[in-house]
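Crash report, auto-generated. Payload:
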Amino acid sequence: MLVHSRGARWAVWAVFGVLFLPLFALPLLVVLGASFATHWSGALPSGMTVANFRSATRGDALDALTTSLVTAVTASLLALAVGTWAALAAARLKERHRRIVDALFVLPLAVPSVVVGLSLLVAFSKPPMLLNGTRWIVILAHTVLVTSFAHQSVSAAITRLDPAYEQAAASLGARPAYVLWRVRLPLLLPSLTAAAGLCFALSMGELSATMMLYPPDWTPLPVLIYSATDRGALFAGSALAVVLMAATLIVLSAVSRVRNKASYR
Amino acid sequence: MAEAVCRPRAGGGRSRPRGAGRASATAPRRYRWAAVPPVALLGLFFLYPLGLVVQQSLHPDTGGTSFRAYAGVFASASFRDALGTTVWIALASTLGCLVLGFLLALVIAFVPFPGARAVARFADVYLSFPSFLITLALLFLYGTTGIIGSFPFLATPWGVLLAEVTYFTPFVMRPLLAAFSQVDTAQIEAASSLGARAPRIVARVILPEALPALAAGGSLVLVLCLNEFGIVLFTGAKGVTTLPMLVYSKAILESDYPGACVVAVVNVLISVGLYGLYRLVSRRAGA
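Recovered output after restart:
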């Protein structure tokens, strides 16, 4: 305990509340409150309604939600596969080469997402690989952006892995593929699911690269939220944002349930 | 997110199991080529497009010689404004996040209150939401039909600064909380029983332990702020243009691809340069 006197402790907590509540809790509460409202001119929202949600869960909005979910799931799985492969393969390399592979896979994190979008636009707008105007360019951009997160969390987990298990398996005659499939991957399962959740959440909220790339028939939810707020429909936009947050949280809690099961095995 | 990124520095980063190096040293040589397919995929879908951006900035398809696009962009006032705005907002936001994140993490870790754990978890949840939600909320608070009042606050860099500090502070808090959980409370008790008051304990005992986590979180936030797009886009402010915003408006709104590529190259150089510097410094600090 850093602060011993009771009064001082209350003072510290008061300062904490004054900083924390308006900065972090208020924005979420405001968006939540606005999603149920039609007017907001006083201190509290007025004209309470669920009409915003009724329109946020049908038609274009429902399509956008499906688009976001499909994009995020596909991108996360692809990124997880590539990132895990790279991390597992890099762990076998010499220190110097491993550093190079690690640095290459961290790079998409440091490059602005807008530039990732621009570069895909420049590269894949002409044959032989004409992806511009298709849904694949959006999925590809999301995959590129989240791969470095998948790679980082998996390679962090690999360095913490106790090599005794795989050495024991190998000494008992297990072939490398069998060791990978039955020993290393099961041990990595908790961090793989954590990485999957992270990738999913990032992809659900991705706006920068998507704004550069999305074709008219593949509009993810964040783009729809932007176009709603841009034309002044703030309350409809808030309802869409709440739907986005809820969908993300539901999937994340399902993923963490899987993770708990995996780590108790 | 921060967990994955700040992982190596947040307290005792060198805790690799001793056998790990040995395992890779004795690994069969033939698995060396296993790294080629993922690196090739990264090359095709990330490095090659990035290379094309650099090439387009030098030799645009629309004709013209090298560096003409650069000269044009560097001479324009909008680019110089955007560069200045981007850098100062990013630096100020990082500073704000560091101070605020340190204070909040300090209270959660060392002056815990009922529900402190819930607050720490709340900060985790925050990381999984998109950044533009903050601007959306600020539009209600300070926008034209504002709750607090409609003063043109969001259209200035200060609005972007407030949104960035709000959104990115949890990125600093997470590695800090991880580092604080490793601080030996006996040290604090000892310092306190020897008569040190709280500010002195924070400065002499806790802060040195937190420095690696602060450095890691701070540089991550700096890079993320330099690259932030959603927050700026949602303010709808014509007055605030950052480099990513300029890339977007040149490419999509003006269809000026060579110009967009030039701005993109500058933005990548700044961000990747800073990020590389951070990895170098943190490796030195960790070793």
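Post-recovery validation: Chain B has one domain: 65-286.
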